[in-house]
Amino acid sequence: MTADPRTAEPGRALLPTATARRTWTTLGAEFRRRPGLSAAATAVLVAAATGGLVAPWVLGRLVDDVIADAPVSRIAGRVAVIAGAAVLTGLLTAAGAALASRLGETVLARLRERVLDRALHLPSATLERAGTGDLLARVGDDVAVVTNVIAVSGPAFVGALLSVVLTVFGLVALDWRLGLAGLVAAPAYALALRWYLRRSAPYYARERVATGERTQAMAGALRGAATVRAYRTEDAHVAAIAERSGVARDLSLEIFNLHTRFGLRINRSEFLGLAAVLVAGFFLVRADLVTVGAATTAALYFHRLFNPIGLLLMESDSVLQAGASLARLVGVATLPDTAPSAPSAAGRRGPAALDVTVRRHRYDDDGPLVLADVELRLAPGERVALVGASGAGKSTLAGIAAGIIAPTDGSVRLGGVPLTERGEHAVRRDVALVSQEVHVFAGPLAEDLRLAAPDATDAELLDALDRVGATTWLRALPDGLATAVGEGGHRLTAAQAQQVALARLVLAAPAVAVLDEATAEAGSAGARDLDRAALAATEGRTTLIVAHRLSQAVAADRIVLLDHGRVVEQGTHSELLAADGRYGRLWRSWSVPV
Fold this sequence. Notes:
The chain starts with a strand and ends with a helix. The strands form five sheets. A six-stranded mixed sheet has the order 10-13-14-7-15-16, sandwiched between helices. The chain has a four-stranded antiparallel sheet with strand order 6-5-8-9, with helices on one face. A two-stranded antiparallel ribbon has the order 1-4. The longest helix has 53 residues, at 234-286. Helix 1 (20-32) crosses helix 12 (316-333) and helix 6 runs antiparallel to helix 8. With 594 residues, it is an alpha/beta fold. The protein has two domains: 19-333, ABC transporter type 1, transmembrane domain (ABC transporter transmembrane region fold); 354-590, 3-Layer(aba) Sandwich (Rossmann fold), CATH 3.40.50.300. It has helices spanning 20-32, 35-51, 54-67, 72-120, 124-130, 132-174, 176-182, 185-223, 225-230, 234-286, 292-314, 316-333, 394-401, 424-430, 445-449, 458-467, 471-476, 494-508, 523-537, 550-554, 573-579, 582-590, and strands at 2-3, 7-9, 12-13, 16-17, 354-361, 371-378, 383-387, 409-414, 417-418, 431-435, 443-444, 484-485, 512-516, 542-546, 558-563, 566-571. The chain contains 22 helices and 16 strands. Strand 8 and strand 9 (417-418) form a beta hairpin. Mean pLDDT is 83; it is low at 1-11 and 340-348.
């Protein structure tokens, strides 16, 4: 598996794309999981392709019968065979297409589930580097491309391939000299296909990347619509979307032009092959080496290749698109599982010590140094606040402490055990991260809360909400815990959504809680209420807080001041004020009353 060397934008690395070998291996494994359906689809499609050879062969015999002045009964019998073969072939073709579509849809459904499963377990840092647009393009656009090929082009493509193979075999079996004449077209077809593939494959890969870039731009603008309007940057975002859409459009037009030129080369190959068969048949009949009927059958066989070969070559663009999309899907589906341990609903018993060592951290090998020489130890039950100017590295350090980001050079230990040795499920169970970007899932409020504790009773849910101060607005909901929230339901305010996130934290009962500006979205009106909710939710737990307001730092057992990725001061609020250093100056500039 390889990562695509292109990026959606500078500094953004796309999710990996599987190699052709890995893609075929994965697909083969999925087909082998359904041997009965795979065998049935193959057998019926082969039978349908074989049935298509009957009519030309019988028609050739019919020509010989007419020349020999055969009785009408024989001619009528051959006509009946042709009609019966046509009906049977049509039925077999329809049945084969249905079985192939069912098999393909089943395999695609399984692959789609694997992609979604891996996507939901991707580390946050991986998603941040790749961008959600790349992932959305894969589970959306790429799945749509593959689905269209499986439902429309796939069965016809497989049937055409079988028809070509069996027809060529029948042509050679009829007379090897006529078969050789037909093969004159093979180099022309091969050159046409080679010309097309060399030019089209890079276009399709670039088109999929361009689609991901367009989706990324649209998703970013829609997610931040309120901010975009507030800063009046609508025109800039529309221009960015238009630019990336234009790139995707231009690539599609170039592919269409390439496809048209490819069709002309196919037509020339067809003419060359049919002319060769007719000329060879003429000389062989004149030399009395084959009958007129055999020459007729050979010409019909080759003419019969026009549609399947044309379909194979003309649909190769769809297959190439599907292949590129499949490689992107398999690239996600076969990402290494970083969560080998089984999930557990119960957290650790009581708080635990957290030791964070970051000798250096960069997001890119040649990128700027984000953190350096950071040694941070949180005793069991201790509350530590990170403060500093924007860009000081607070959120990065919080992400490393939560196990979301792997430090370039460093380690994180929980209770003396490195997080890398605990497994993803254990880390997510024992270390919980709550950021300012919380999400309320569509559905009943109770189901949203039970994401953190699936077995929690209604009483436990109510207790968690009461602990974070959400009782007042909960009572105002029309159906209480059964009220549908999120998209299509009751819309919660930003502060209420944060309280739901903090209630999930209470229910999850982790050993360590990391709050990355978790109350920043409340605004001044609900700031104190959310600060109290955060204190209540993290009571008795080892807690690391990225302070959005210095009032949050006052309540901490210890304050750590970061500047340009380094710890420059630490101590209690009183100690740092008495030292009259950077924190003291920062406190005075904020003018936050104690």
